[in-house]
Amino acid sequence: MAWNEPGNNDKDPWKNKGGKNQGPPDLDELLNDLGKKVTGIFGGKTTKGGSGFGKNFSRIGLSILLIVASIVYAFSGFYTIKEAEKGIVLRFGQYTGTVEPGINWKWTFIDRIIPVDMQSTRDMPSSGFMLTKDENVVRVEMQIQYRVVDARNYIFSVTNAEDSLNQSLDSALRYVIGHADMDDILTSGREDIRQAVWQELEKIIAPYNLGLIIVDVNFKDARPPNEVKDAFDDAISAQEDEVRFLREAEAYARGIEPRARGRVKRIEQEAIAYKTQIVLDAQGEVARFEKILPEYQAAPRVTRERLYIATMEKVYSNTSKVMIDVEGSNNMMYLPLDKIIQQQNTSNRSGKTTYAPVNELNINTSPLSSSNRSDRFSNGRN
């Protein structure tokens, strides 16, 4: 017969456990026992009606426990997002939105917050030996700088955005180096290669929506293997010398050409000025001749005398010696006016007045007859 058949409850294993008719523990009894023990600790007396007090005490303790737990739970939900970050909110593992920097609150054990740095610029290097277009091996070192612009795509678009970016950088760098000559990589084509790597990298990461933006690409170094480094250094030095000589020649040409053009322009201007001067002088002579001609036709003798006097005045104005005809003698005397003026200036500087005798003035007299003097003047007038 089974132990749980009607009328045979003495065989219940819970009541007869240990042979003492014990049953399963009752929650009310457990709370009553706890209340009695607490009352005993604080000096209270247990009575027959103590079961009601135990029940009330258990309810109060449970309420206090719930209130304390609620307060702790509420305070545990506060968290802070830094100024440079943005928080990704996951509720039961599902994306529900983002939170801005500052103090925020979440449901503890329900929400999870992932902070993402949105302002810092990060570095990522890449280097290695690569094969160029002309089948040479070169070691290239390049570094990129990037920043997070979309926190959701950065976390959820791929498994690891930075690892994907690193692999994309290696791919773009090897593709560009493989389509370039070694001379361009080592010398003059570094900027073109940098721009090409930047464009190729952006093209590769665009379909993945990594939530990243490339800020800059730095071409740090490019060098051949150590076994052939000396030969390449010599070749690079020769190319640099070639470029330097070309720049010096261009600078010399730029310095000589303007001076030559200026000299040509000056000669042209002088020629034009000389031409203009000659033409104007000729026109002035013609105009003067046209004015003198009527006067000469009216009084030829007077006009000849006036022309003679004007000519002699012009001639003597350019000489430092004067010829004087002394009346009553047969001598023609020459006065060295330049020496007279020089001695006069010297005396003025010294503050003394000196008079030089005639023989010291180097006065040159030559005997001339009156007839010769008159013939000389007449020939000059003619």
TrEMBL record:
Signal peptide bounds: none
GO biological process: proteolysis
NCBIfam families: hflK (TIGR01933)
Record InterPro entries: Band7/mec-2_domain, Band_7, Band_7/SPFH_dom_sf, HflK, Membrane_HflK_N, Stomatin_HflK_fam
Organism the protein comes from: Colwellia marinimaniae
Protein's UniProt name: Protein HflK
Annotated family: Belongs to the band 7/mec-2 family. HflK subfamily.
Biological function: HflC and HflK could encode or regulate a protease.
GO molecular function annotation: peptidase activity
Membrane-topology descriptor: Single-pass membrane protein
Residue numbers spanned by region Disordered: 1-26, 360-382
Binding partners and assembly: HflC and HflK may interact to form a multimeric complex.
Polar residues composition-biased segments: 361-372
Superkingdom as given in the UniProt entry: Bacteria
Gene responsible for this protein: hflK
Pfam families with a match to the protein in the record: Band_7 (PF01145), HflK_N (PF12221)
SUPFAM superfamilies tied to this protein: Band 7/SPFH domain (SSF117892)
Comp. bias (Basic and acidic residues): 373-382
Residue span, Band domain: 76-236
Transmembrane intervals: 60-81
Keywords recorded for this protein, A-Z: Hydrolase, Membrane, Protease, Transmembrane, Transmembrane helix
Subcellular location: Membrane
